[in-house]
Amino acid sequence: MTSEVAEDFTPEQVARGRALRRAQLPAAIGGRLAGLALLLVLGLTPGGAWLAGLFGDGWAARILAGGLSLVVLRTLLLLPFSAWVRVVRARFGLVTQGWAGWVLDVLRGLLVSVPLLLGALYGVYALAGTGRWWWWAWAALGAAVAAVVLSWLAPVLLEPLFNRFTPMEPGPLRDALLALAERDRVRVREVLVADASRRTTALNAYVSGFGRTRRIVAYDTLLTTAEPREVELVVAHELGHVKHRDVLRGTVLGAVGAAVGVCVLAAVVSWRPLLGAAGVDHFSDPRSVWLLAAVAAVGSAIAGPFGCAVSRRIERRADAHALELTDDPAHFIAMQRRITVANVGDPSPPRLLHLLFGTHPTAVQRIAAARRHAVTA
Q1: What pLDDT digit, counting tens, does each position of 316-339 carry?
Q2: Same-domain check for residues 202 and 278
Q3: How far apart are CA 318 and CA 247, in angstroms?
Q4: How far apart are CA 122 and CA 128, in angstroms?
């Protein structure tokens, strides 16, 4: 254990965080590899085309069969890995939800993802079936618009499907959070409390929505565990994302990324050797849906570490904003300690693992940044 870790965390806390990481890593990595393998096996062989033809030879029927088989088989394959991670996290006291509630959440996820996926597939194959060489341009535009619309609607329509939100009771903490947003010149409509405790003991807060729908959301677990000043520091970090327009930039980048991704996919899935391996003559045949998913999965896996690097940079900037807004590095450090311990996090995970999958700076890095702020302020 390095001196930086030992300065802020006890050996027992460090050992517990590392034990959780090691216990759930095989399931997490195994699930990723199994999901990718399924897509490659059925996307690069006639197996996927056969599944897409189960409902008949009609254009709409092939899209329906391909999309449903894709969602159902992938979900069934990944369920054991998700359950494995859940069992591990429950052993460390991070899970409060029963198995029935977990299954219900899975079903809710399917009710959201299946219509979205089928809508996207029908749109893509309708355009590809026109025979025009520029069909991919309209598909790219549609993907960009969909990314923007979903980003705007998610806080209002999707979040309430998985959590209940209640207004925070009037009092000193609510007043302090609203005053913090006002001092930061960020307009928020309200302060809400999410009933996260019915699923987990983990601590968190966030700011969601745009314009009139923007609100501060705090986990009830955070409010019952952390000191009020620490809650303010968490919210100050989230306000940093708003102040630097991270949500807006993320939406724009997501739209651009979706458009570029569609263009790349259109080029790759039209490559004759891949179409031959998938057992189809041309991409406009909806039986190529598994091939499309396989290529998209490979692209996502390649882009993943780059996305994590961008995310870590954004999170460091939000931390700096929180320190500048509050000028309270002592409570920032206390907050980082509390969240790391409560969430059973590893304060300093292996470097390679962090580079590949880490979306936030490590706890040790965030605490070190707060100490530097204290010296230079």
Answers
A1: 999 999 999 999 999 999 999 999
A2: no
A3: 12
A4: 10
Do 207 and 237 lie in a common domain? yes
Structure tokens at 369: 């940044």
d(CA 193, CA 133): 50
249, 313 Cβ separation under 8 angstroms: no
pLDDT in tens, 255-309: 787 788 788 878 888 889 999 999 998 888 999 999 999 998 998 899 899 989 9
Question: What CATH number is associated with residue 216?
Answer: 3.30.2010.10
Confidence of residue 341 (pLDDT cuts 50, 70, 90): very high
Segment 48-57 mean pLDDT:
92
Cα–Cα dist 181/266, whole Å: 44
In a domain, 122, yes or no: yes
Residue ending a domain, choose from 188, 210, 242: 242
Neighbouring CB atoms inside 10 A of 147's CB total: 20
Average pLDDT, the chain: 90
Q: Contact, 263 vs 30, CB < 8 A?
A: no
Are 245 and 267 spatial neighbours (Cβ–Cβ below 8 Å)? no
- What total of structural domains would you count in the chain? 2
pLDDT interval class at 1 (50, 70, 90): low
Among candidate residues 377, 376, 362, the one with its CA nearest the CA of residue 4: 362
Q: Are residues 125 and 270 in the same domain?
A: yes
**Using CA atoms in the order 65, 70, 75, 81, what is the torsion angle rounded to 10 degrees?**
150
> Are 27 and 122 contained in the same domain?
yes
How many CB atoms are closer than 10 A to CB 236? 28
- Owning domain of residue 333: 9-132+264-376
Taking CB atoms within 8 Å and a gap of at least 24, the contacts of 2-7 are 2/348, 2/364, 4/348, 4/364, 4/367, 4/368, 5/347, 5/348, 5/364
Token pair of 28 as six digits: 């997490």
Q: Which of 210, 242, 274 is the last residue of a domain?
A: 242
Decide: 274 and 347 in contact? Cβ < 8 Å: no
Under 8 Å CB-to-CB from 359, ≥6 apart: which residues?
308, 311, 312, 315
Rounded Cα distance, 258 and 146, in Å? 9
